[in-house]
């Protein structure tokens, strides 16, 4: 007889064995969606020279002190500075230089007047700009370091690179980007009933779908999946595969073989390996037979052979482990609150994780379960973008309740796993309902 | 003088020139996040043989007609069928076969009794199972096609492959997956002030960040970015680069050179190419100078050289174009409603798109602007996961208003662009406020 432990406790046991992964550098073009291994700091002030935010004329402000509509001043225009060019000889008080957005302010100038407020004139073969107002010192000048200061931490390590981070990396010359190495996650599907994806069907057999599902889940979590050959329900074959994977990968996942059937060899494999069992039963549906063990600091996840249970087991236990290796700060699935779209009248002593699709309406999130929630139906996973959390207990759940949902496609994550929040929220709603 | 057109109209003009992209097949392992080019149909019934959903005994139900706690029946156990195996000789009414979850029901059996409800006995060297209740015909038998029917469309074309879709592909033997080819999007950054990411700083110059930002945005939208060398503010150089890119890529994006400055050559390049101008001014901030043109059915996007304007221009105009080529149904950014986290007291005649970070609280979405909203600050793009939409008009916006936000990291998208929704919603709130 196995004793179920709470989901929360199972997660805690897994997370006790996390470790930080290794680092590597990748070219900036390959950095999208990777996790920064070091803080990204400004390698120079931005701007690192005074520049003009507009097209206009760089001038000495003092020369406009007396200017007004009736008495405009005329300043000689020495030339034009395009963005990327400089005017190295500087200007004198009665001179100006036409300047383009982004160009460096020449020596002697302390202000820029926008081109729209001026007029150019020609006189005696020289070009002049006519200014009809007083310009303040510093007007339209972006000061050195105004946007960013050298040494400032712009993006903390543990951040996933998005297009904005890429732009920042480029700005500061990060041709090579220090990122966390993707943890290698071994996938071993067990079960004599399994066929490879390219094999023809045989009576009694089904194609291996869990391994491909996990392949996608590992990539989505930021890891590098590694396939191992399908393993029959055979003790030695299973043992050898797990042993080999332990030597090659950072974590080892098996699917199937964790129940109490005659051909469920994973518990015996853990035993022969001398692995320390963390748990072999979790108070959850689906996936109550999910197991985990540790050998020499390396973790083994025994996921269910049932697709939905396997899916949920990965998201709850494997994902935060991988994310921690990757140096993420928010390793758990983000929790949001949503309105339950259907009754769940039957109580269940175990916490349920119902595959659901969220919809947004007027700033409020609704959660509808996806198709039938039979755990053997792969197709319910197609549309799911969330898991509804229904805490175990002696009562069912009615449509319209505010329930917690775990967001599956969110990139941000959450720093903690807090099952109790859900319990308290539901408790409060039920009290209000009857008071 | 350029005449600004509404964002909505600019999008419509761009979308008139969309076309569907090409198809290719990729191995299932490379299919994650790709877009299905064909409907994914069930290639066989699931299950395609009757199977047992539990560990138990396959029996003929009629043989338990008289069974009860006082008068149990004993059926001879002929053997065990592990998952993946079959029992080809069938059973007779007084016989049973032990059966594992997922295994095929043998001929002669029409029900399964769960192992927990039985007991095994040995008598005269034979094994018997003791059954103390009547078992109904069909009990615990998963019928052929119960989960999925052959020919059923499981995932429509245009769907992005997620781990659940991968599992479904594997189930039905899709070793090679028909997906949409990633559209090639050329990126040409123009500006004499630009340095490559690995070049040392020079006075008056800045490193090219837009191209790397677009690189990330193109990948995020499902396209394949193609870099072209930096182009100086020089008419011929710009013209040649754009012309070459038109011959090689599916769409061409330039950054910079679209203003009305002395060195803004993009309008002249469009002219010399003989491209039809779609627009060269949009009533939006940032990015009012965003331009678009068409040549021989191929589209050219003239994005601003200002990072924020470039970013917004891509998301509003280029993204839906690329997504349409990819066969997506929901090509626009998903709109949600969120509570405005800050006052925007200054009215603006143009629609503003403010880079923001969303937070969720008790089922309600809050939108806070990210850092300063200066359009020249790259760092404001790091944390942005949404754009707040503030429609143009003669009034400012107060904290607490329900505003529309466009979700930047959402995978689902929206089928339509509807600016008017925002206007009507704001109108309603303001009326309520003063009534």
Strand elements of chain A, count: 24
User: Number of DSSP helices of chain A?
Assistant: 7
Instruction: Name the average pLDDT of chain A.
Output: 92
Helix/strand-derived category of chain A reads: alpha/beta
Low-pLDDT residue spans of chain A: none
Q: What is the CATH class of the largest domain in chain A?
A: Alpha Beta
Spatial strand arrangement across the major sheet of chain A? 6-3-5-4-8-7
CATH topology of the largest domain in chain A: Molybdenum Cofactor Biosythetic Enzyme, Chain A
Over the alpha carbons, how many angstroms does the gyration radius of chain A reach? 32 Å
Oligomer: homodimer
Largest interface: A-B, 103 and 103 residues
Range of strand content of chain A: 25-35%
- Shape category of chain A: elongated
Distance between the termini of chain A: 42 Å
Describe this structure in words.
- The structure is a homodimer of 435-residue chains.
- Chain A is of the alpha/beta class.
- The first copy, chain A, folds into four domains: 7-22 and 182-325, 3-Layer(aba) Sandwich (Molybdenum Cofactor Biosythetic Enzyme, Chain A); 26-44 and 155-180, Molybdopterin biosynthesis moea protein, domain 2 (Alpha-Beta Complex), CATH 3.90.105; 56-131, Beta Complex (Molybdopterin biosynthesis moeA protein, domain 3); 334-434, MoeA, C-terminal, domain IV (Beta-clip).
- Helices cover 20% and strands 28% of the residues of chain A.
- The first copy, chain A, has helices at residues 7-15, 163-171, 210-221, 235-248, 266-273, 307-325, 419-434; strands at residues 23-27, 40-41, 56-59, 73-81, 95-99, 111-114, 118-123, 126-131, 153-155, 176-180, 184-189, 194-195, 206-207, 224-227, 251-255, 276-279, 284-285, 291-295, 298-303, 334-340, 351-361, 364-369, 386-390, 402-407.
- In chain A, strands 6-3-5-4-8-7 form a six-stranded mixed beta sheet, with no helix packed on it. In chain A, strands 14-11-15-19-18-16 form a six-stranded mixed beta sheet, sandwiched between helices. A five-stranded mixed β-barrel of chain A has the order 20-22-21-23-24.
- Chain A is elongated.
- Chains A and B meet through α2, β13, α3 and β20 of A and α2, β13, α3 and β20 of B.
């Amino acid at each position: 007889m196995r004793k179920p432990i709470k989901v929360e406790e199972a997660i805690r046991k897994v997370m006790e064995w996390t470790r930080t992964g290794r680092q590597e550098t990748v070219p900036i073009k390959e950095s999208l969606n990777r996790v920064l291994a070091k803080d990204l700091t400004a390698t120079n002030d931005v701007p690192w020279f005074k520049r003009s935010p507009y097209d206009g004329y760089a001038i000495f402000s003092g020369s406009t002190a007396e200017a007004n509509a009736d008495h405009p001043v005329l300043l000689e225009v020495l030339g034009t500075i395009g963005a990327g060019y400089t005017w190295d000889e500087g200007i004198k008080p009665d001179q100006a230089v036409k300047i383009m957005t982004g160009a460096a302010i020449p020596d002697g100038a302390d202000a820029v007047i926008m081109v729209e407020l001026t007029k150019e004139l020609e006189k005696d073969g020289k070009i002049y700009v006519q200014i009809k107002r007083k310009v303040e010192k510093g007007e339209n000048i972006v000061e050195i370091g105004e946007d960013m200061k050298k040494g400032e931490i712009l993006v903390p390590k543990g951040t996933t690179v998005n297009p904005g981070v890429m732009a920042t990396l480029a700005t500061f010359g990060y041709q090579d980007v220090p990122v966390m190495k993707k943890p290698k996650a071994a996938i071993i599907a067990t079960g004599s009933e399994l066929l490879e994806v390219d094999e023809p069907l045989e009576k009694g057999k089904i194609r291996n779908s869990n391994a491909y599902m996990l392949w996608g889940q590992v990539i989505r979590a930021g890891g590098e999946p590694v396939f191992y050959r399908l393993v029959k329900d055979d003790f030695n074959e299973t043992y050898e595969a797990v042993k080999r994977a332990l030597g090659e990968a950072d974590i080892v996942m098996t699917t199937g073989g964790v129940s109490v059937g005659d051909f469920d060899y994973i518990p015996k494999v853990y035993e022969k390996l001398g692995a320390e069992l963390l748990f072999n039963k979790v108070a959850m549906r689906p996936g109550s037979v999910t197991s985990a063990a540790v050998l020499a600091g390396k973790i083994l996840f025994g996921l269910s052979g049932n697709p939905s249970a396997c899916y949920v087991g990965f998201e709850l236990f494997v994902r935060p482990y991988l994310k921690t290796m990757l140096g993420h700060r928010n390793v758990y699935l983000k929790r949001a609150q949503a309105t339950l779209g259907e009754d769940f009248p039957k109580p269940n002593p175990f916490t349920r994780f119902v595959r659901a699709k969220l919809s947004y309406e007027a700033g409020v999130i609704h959660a509808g379960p996806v198709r039938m929630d039979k755990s053997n139906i792969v197709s319910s996973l197609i549309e799911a973008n969330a898991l509804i959390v229904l805490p175990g207990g002696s009562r069912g759940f009615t449509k319209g309740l505010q329930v917690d949902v775990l967001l599956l496609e969110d990139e941000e994550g959450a720093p903690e796993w807090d099952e109790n929040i859900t319990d308290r929220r539901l408790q409060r709603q039920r009290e209000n309902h009857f008071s």
